[in-house]
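Exercise 3.2. Students should predict the tertiary structure of the chain below and write it as structure tokens, then compare their answer with the key that follows.

Predict this chain's 3D structure.
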Amino acid sequence: MLQFKPKYLVIGLFIFLIELLIALYIHDQVIRPFIGDLLVVILIYYFTKAFIKLPSKHLLLSVWIFAIMVEISQHFKLINTLNLEHERWAQLVFGNSFSWIDILMYSIGILLIPIIEKSGRHLLVMQKKAVK
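Answer key:
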């Protein structure tokens, strides 16, 4: 069940860097609220895939459910219940307001992952053919 796949860790770290840059420097009405939420499920997927061996379908579903649970925790103000509402890291990790749009963006991100992976495999095949 446990594994280490450096390729997925590198992808996860790259997406983490993008998310960090978005969180620190972008304060707009599109990239931060929409693209950030879309990327976060992709980030979680690749970090998890770097260390845990699961069929992609199971991992996709697990990440999506996790994201939905975090969003639901925002609806019920879990961050306040845990007395973490003044902690910046908790606000970044858990968020602070429920949104159906966030759930939509998580869903789109999850649906993009198989497309990304299929495109990546296609590029590898093309690369191997070009080398021959």
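Discussion points: Residues 6-131 form one domain. The longest helix spans residues 100-131.
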